[in-house]
Give the backbone structure.
Amino acid sequence: MFHSPNETPASIQFGPGLNVIYGASETGKSFLVEAIDFMLGGKRLLRDLPERVGYDSVLLGIETLLGEQHTLIRSADGGSFRLYSGLHFEPPSEMSKQRTGGAT
């Protein structure tokens, strides 16, 4: 999810099992994959797109095979990650911060 204090959140939710991403050219499929890669530490920076303007953070919710839920949060400009317990749809307050990790 891309989060902004001034914009409507931009998000996609995957279901259990296989998820297929398809659509017309230039509709964001490749950018979605790049954003997931960015959140997993594979990319240092996201591509600049007009649709990304105004969004300041990216949230990625994950669930382990044991059912544990976590949210990774990273600035849309890169940098370190923050890890929170549970699934969050906006950045939680600093009081609930669990761990900070470095970017690759």
Notes: The radius of gyration is 14 Å. The chain has a mean pLDDT of 87. The longest strand covers residues 57-63.
